[in-house]
Design brief:
By secondary structure, the chain is of the alpha/beta class. It has 19 helices and 20 strands. The termini are far apart.
């Protein structure tokens, strides 16, 4: 029987390989399903396993070990004597199950390594385009895929975007290109070299900012994980001209011969960049006459139509255009894709515009970097902020944007750090707190407080700069509840003939 390191193809002999899969989320199930199809003996270990997935496992010949606690080490692990452990992305490198595997000398893979090894199930295997960054990954992934589809390619956006890469790899129809969104967790588990090292056609790190430091153990480890996206790239390493850290990542990356560094930014582009001239998005990277000429890709009005007119929306557009052009998409495909693209929910999504007051849902702003981009798009803001801070500091964000704030409304559990940031950098700003802690009451209370202070021309912006799991299922649940509370408030106001609440003057 082949050892795990020798298994480099779907068509190798995987039968009988003993594999322990850690986790039964969307990714863990895809891993188990793939390994079962390959003929492996698979055991899945999960704490609080999803009922539907748990019911399917025995049907596909996979054993489930339900753990009493998340770090329990049951006897079943030793009984299996696994030759390989595959971890779901969220498992920290110091998790007891991972440490147990390392102590035994058992190889530990992530789902991306497994997917790369078996990518040839359908021939010819798809090219891979890799996308990461602290913010903007999903929008850029969707945009890149849309541009390539407009160019006539069979494309699957997958990975951290919600569709496991393994599901895309096993699709019997096959694809020309997989556009793979990668979280820092997935990148951590990707090897730098060996048969499991991904060799993408093109790659990008959109930006790097404070996030997930608690998981990675600090800024350096987080950045190192993100930098893996560029390793072994063959055609184009795309980087952010406004973020020097991404340029350094490219400079330090081990890439394949002939790979080029391609910058993107909302400025006049240099001879290897994609950028903006007047009201046009232009390419000075993928044309022979790039030192003297540029190709028009789209108009800024196309970006606005797509709902991407914020600074980060434009940056995502430029990055996607660079990746699509690296794959070979025609300029017209970039333009036409933008004209039919619409940004996802919860990304600076306009919920309502009433009495010259905009209510905007950017619940996807789960860290300060994303919230900064949202705040910078509006002149006068009533800011709904707070949640699960994940160890990040909001003080620089408050200091930078305090002059555009009319008031702030604090939600979430990590209150002390939020209060301290405002006390230090915006002590005169009207500050309100939602006292309700039950999920169903949080957003109605926040909207009522916002309605009492907002004035014509303002934007009420939900951009929490924090994760949502303290009070909500996820960021989508948080955004949906905000939107519902806004609609309920506006409907009630439309039927209220009584006096309106007095509104305090701007501080």
């Amino acid at each position: 029987m082949a050892r795990p390191d020798d298994l480099q193809s779907w068509h190798d002999d995987w039968s009988g390989l003993r594999v322990l899969v850690l986790g039964l989320g969307v990714t863990g199930f895809a891993v188990a399903d793939t390994l079962a199809e390959l003929g492996c003996r698979v055991v899945v270990a999960a704490h609080r396993a999803d009922d539907d997935r748990a019911r399917i496992l025995p049907v596909i010949g996979v054993e489930l070990v339900e753990l009493a606690t998340a770090d329990e080490l049951p006897a079943a692990f030793d009984a299996l004597d696994p030759e390989l452990v595959v971890v779901s992305p969220g498992f920290r490198p110091d998790h007891p199950h991972v440490a147990w595997a390392h102590d035994r000398g058992t190889p530990v893979w992530g789902d991306i390594e497994l997917a790369w090894r078996v990518r040839d199930k359908v021939a010819p295997p798809a090219e891979w385009v890799l996308i990461t960054g602290t913010n903007g990954k999903t929008t850029t992934t969707q945009l890149t895929a849309t541009m390539l589809q407009e160019d006539g390619r069979r494309v699957a956006p997958c990975g951290n975007i919600g569709v496991p890469v393994l599901d895309a790899v096993r699709d019997p129809a096959g694809f020309d290109v997989l556009v793979v969104e990668l979280s820092s967790f997935q990148l951590h588990w990707m090897p730098y070299d060996g048969p499991g090292a991904v060799r993408p056609l093109a790659s990008v790190c959109l930006n790097i900012a404070e996030d997930h430091y608690d998981w990675h153990g600090g800024a350096e480890a987080y950045a190192a994980a993100k930098a893996k996206v560029y390793a072994h790239t063959r055609v184009a390493c795309v980087y952010n001209l406004a973020d020097p850290a991404t340029m350094r990542m490219v400079e330090e990356a081990e890439v394949q011969e002939g790979c080029r560094a391609i910058g993107f930014g909302a400025t006049v582009p240099g001879p290897s960049d994609v950028g903006v001239v007047d009201d046009l998005i232009v390419d000075r990277a993928f044309l022979d006459e790039r030192r003297t000429s540029a190709l028009e890709l789209a108009e800024l009005s196309d970006v606005m139509t797509a709902g991407l007119a914020t600074p980060h929306g434009l940056a995502n557009t430029l990055a996607a255009a660079a990746l699509a052009r690296a794959v070979g998409a025609a300029p017209v495909a970039v333009r036409d894709a933008l004209r039919r693209f619409r940004v996802d929910a919860h990304r600076t999504e306009l919920v309502a515009l009433e009495a010259d007051i905009a209510w905007v849902d950017d619940s996807k702003a789960t860290n300060p970097h994303a919230a900064a981009s949202a705040l910078s798009a509006y002149r006068s803001v009533v800011w709904i902020v707070g949640g699960l801070l994940k160890g990040v500091d909001l003080a620089p964000l408050v200091e930078t944007h305090r002059d555009r704030l009319r008031a702030a409304i604090i939600i979430g559990v990590d209150r002390d750090a939020v209060r301290a940031a405002f006390a230090r950098h915006a002590p005169a700003l009207p500050l309100f707190e939602v006292e309700a802690h039950e999920t169903e009451h949080v957003m109605p209370a926040a909207v009522r407080l916002a309605a009492d202070v907002v004035q014509g021309g303002d934007t009420v912006l939900l951009a929490p700069a924090a994760a949502s799991m303290d009070q909500f299922v996820d960021y989508a649940d948080r955004g949906n509840r905000f939107a519902a509370a806004v609609r309920q408030h506006l409907e009630g106001e439309a039927h209220d003939d009584g006096p309106t609440s007095p509104r305090p003057p701007r501080a």
